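Internal tracking record. Fields below are filled automatically when a chain is submitted to the structure queue. Please do not edit lines marked as system-generated. If the sequence contains nonstandard residues, flag them in the REMARKS field before resubmitting.
Queue: standard
Priority: normal
Entity type: single polypeptide chain
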Amino acid sequence: MRPWPGPRDRQGMYLGTTTAPGSGKQATRILIVDDHEISRAALRALLRTEGIDVADVGTGDAAITATIAFHPDVVVVDVAPADPAGFHIARQLRALPDAPAVVLTSSHSRYRFGSQLDHYPFVAKADLCARVIGMPRTSSSDDRAP
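SYSTEM-GENERATED OUTPUT FOLLOWS
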C-alpha cells in the first residue's frame, strides 16, 4: 500500500492501492468529489484504513474524467442546498456507460434539500464510513426532523 496521502496523477487525483491489504482481491474503488480538501483528506484516510482503494478530486469538472480513468465502484459527491453543481455532477455520472453508484453527502441535514435527494442515496458527512458507502441507502441517522 502506498503511504498516505500518496501520489497524484495528471488530473490531480490521489491514487490508492489496487488490492485489499492481505487478501489479493480487488479492493472496492471509491472516488470522492468534494471542494473541501480537509473533508476529502479525512474521508480518504478513513476509507484507506478500511482497505478501500480511494481517489479524489476537488472540482466537478474533474469528476467525469476521474471516473473514466479510475473506474470507481462508488462516487461520493458533496452537495449543498443552494448550489446545483453537485446534483449536476451526479446526473452526469449516472449517464456514463457502466456508471458507478452515486452517493450524495453533505454537512447539511437532508431536510435542507427537499425533493432534490429523491433519486439518490444520501449519507450525512458525520455518518460516512466504508460500511454505509458500500451499501448505499436512502436514509441516515440525520433523517430525524429538526
